[in-house]
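Agenda item 2: 4'-phosphopantetheine complex prediction
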Amino acid sequence: MITPPRKRIETLPHQPTRVTAIYPGSFDPITNGHLDLIQRGSRLFDRLIVSILWNDAKEPLFSVEERIEMLREVVGVYPNVEVDSFHGLLVDHASAHSATVLLRGIRAISDYEYELQMALMNRRLRPAIETVFMMANEAYSFISSRLVKEVFSLGGDISGLVPPTVEARLQRRLAKVV
Ligand code: PNS
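Presented output:
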């Protein structure tokens, strides 16, 4: 029996898409929870930009320049991770970098409402940009920058909650204050 020649399946030329994601936040200061998300995000996306918001409404402990320095000290090991800062709308900052993803972490159900609101607002503003949520590592799900600062200022032990370089900076900052 003669079998008919197999029809060639036409495929589109394979065009790998490079995905740039923005991981925005205050990072005052960066915690091991943030760092865990950065590490995992760096494996998911081709380029990950950690972006610090210039927020005049908040009174931060560390200036944006100091936070950039702290972040750069710890993300240097990930070649596809960059650090910068932004003013104004997050979606405008993302578009300026051709980023199509906003990365955010969720620690507990209490984070969900705020994150949902932001994600829906950002989607309304720029539908082409997708917010991707990652669940925080359970080992860090109780950590926040605010609690770290509070515990540290009251003399509590924060080792293991922030990178050692950040702990050292906190110590220097507290020594200046007292
Ligand atoms: O770590 P934070 O403080 O919870 O981060 C909040 C942040 C920086 C992601 C959010 O305040 C933000 O994106 N601000 C930029 C202003 C903006 O775009 N607002 C409209 C969309 S919610």
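Discussion summary: The domain at 20-177 is CATH 3.40.50.620 (Rossmann fold).
Owner for follow-up: CH.
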